[in-house]
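Dig into this one:

. . .
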Amino acid sequence: MSKPKLLSIVPSKWIGLRSSSLAQAADVVVEGIDHYRPEEIDYALSFYPPKGLLKTLPKLKAAFCLGAGVDGFLSDPDYPKHVPLVRFVDRTLSAEMAQYVLLHVLIRHRQQRFFDEAQHERQWRQMVLPRRTQDTRVGFMGLGEVGGFCAARVAELGFAVASWTAHKKDIVNIRSFAGDSELAAFLGQTDILVCLLSLTRQTAGILNARSFAALPEGAFVINAARGQHLIEKDLMRALDSGWLSGAALDVFAEEPLPATSPLWSHPKVTVTPHVAAISQPEAVTRYVLGGIAAFERGEMPKDVVDIATAY
């Protein structure tokens, strides 16, 4: 019995997947390198497949996303909606994101930038933290697999944690807000805002002037979801006016972030190059192998995305 054919549409650093244990279960061909016939492809694997490519694969049984966010697939207006789309869920990925979020929550809460400046000036500046941990309100936009894990870790440290989602959540130690009608109330009680939303038509541009104005004065923003969630010029205005105290940004509308971007040098902004959580090839291999095995048995694997909601 011949092995199913898997089309790998990946950056150059991921080409090694072809020689991994994936090859035991599938005949792996790489887009742009290997010759293949579209009608032979059973599965596809990618972060951001070229728009229109997947619809040219008539036998496609499923598509696997290399990351937790599937906007790279669903931004394609010609994505074949009858083809199951499987998102990558991995506890290591969630843990890395939690580390990133905790790092920047604690840098802000513990006033580390104040002490960095004091060290630079060789000044011994002690201070009482302006707010107790239990009085520091951390709000999560998005509470899926990754967001929920991150929020739970922040709550374990004693912060007051809330979430804003499409529908109400009942999670211990996390106050729930839901829907457009409760967005302003959620923002109004958030000192540190963490965006981990999926990117959809409804969430694009949600970090904007109106949202920033609804936050308390001095609030801090962390965006580790997608760059398209943030209106960068609105953030710059809110920072320059003093309304927001700072931001930590891991994702950007244009990546790599252009050298001309004022975000690089803004004194209130921390820039990281989309490294909050990076998929590991070994984990991806296990995930794809399990998914292919399920489909070949006629079963639907876990974490198939609802195309209508992008979750």
User: Anything to note?
Assistant: The first strand starts at residue 5 and ends at 9. The radius of gyration is 21 Å. The domain at 5-90+279-296 is CATH 3.40.50.720 (Rossmann fold).
